Amino acid sequence: MNILVTGAAGFIGSHFVRTLLSGGYPGHEDDRVTVVDKLTYAGTLNNLPPHDPRLTFVHGDICDAPLLDKVFPGHDAVVHFAAESHVDRSVTGAEAFVRTNVLGTQALLEAALRHGTGVFVQVSTDETYGSIAEGRWTEDEPLLPNSPYAASKASADLIARSYWRTHGLDVRITRCANNYGPGQHPEKLVPLFVTRLLDGQPVPLYGDGSNLREWLHVDDHCRAVRLVLDAGRPGEIYNIGGGTHLTNKEMTGRLLALCGRDWDLVQRVADRKGHDFRYAVDDSKIRRELGYAPRWSLDDALRGTVEWYAAHRDHWDAPEEGADGGHTRGY
Ligand code: NAD
Ligand code: TDX
User: Domains in the chain and their CATH numbers?
Assistant: First the structure.
């Protein structure tokens, strides 16, 4: 199988590609992977194997239709991770979110249609549902996104579904809870707090810290994406949960303990605008239909994540935005 993976110089897509190339997904040992990534501030080639004969890296923008026409032929499936992914950035500048997340997704769908690409996995997020005071969202829940980021992802999901309904493209959508793990950009809560706490720097806790998130290790998310790629049904949506719900204050307490720091490093700062209070998904569908179950316990995986950041302090220092490190295949 030849798989086109977008955004795999970033946190989650790179984990998916590294795992696939190292034989972690049975049945995919002979797959070839093409990565298309723009190498924004969020992407780095440090996240990908430097020399793997089964991997081709294309430095490019998913909005670039002529480029996609050159890259798409010969691929059997698309796994679409590329996105502007940070909520706070969407609050101060939404344009890039609409461009990449909505128009970029549409450009990919159109290319998949033109080139007869078999399966299109749209990697999305539980934030498209909005915020839920109690209970859990099923896949039938209406979309009520609150941040420009979440709205751009919800828009992309709807466009993707329309290509299935209108054109019969085999689109499968995943909606996952908050991820954590090695290699996440230190703008997100867990890596921001870990990198700062390891250096004895203060960390900014928004509002009163009572907002609640459902946490999932990136490896569990990627395994679920692979199950959807292999056995998901066309036009279907699959929630992916972690089952571990923590308030931000509780998560902060765990990170302080793992980094050997005290609460005096925690600064209460102004709340995020429009801050969603609580996310929680019902993922019984993917468990029932595809046999998904998370494998990582929060305690072990969070400890491993802290250890990874302690051992990889230079991970984000080297690459400049747009640097391709000489890996790029020319088009
Ligand atoms: P990330 O920000 O770490 O990586 C995004 C990648 O996309 C980067 O490598 C970046 O260079 C690339 N990119 C951005 N714009 C591009 C463009 N126009 N063309 C080509 N490449 C471009 O993101 P992530 O945390 O790995 O998230 C991956 C996907 O998973 C996203 O679609 C996100 O919405 C979704 N998701 C993330 C989480 C989470 O907790 N991080 C949870 C659920 C779903
Ligand atoms: O400095 C901070 N202080 C703080 O209190 C940051 C960066 C975050 N927070 C809070 C806001 C959230 O309630 O922590 C929680 C988690 O924040 P983020 O790590 O920014 O994640 P979130 O906004 O929940 O969105 C994430 O999960 C869903 C990802 O960034 C999205 O890409 C994904 O779709």
Answer: 2-177+216-240 (3.40.50.720)
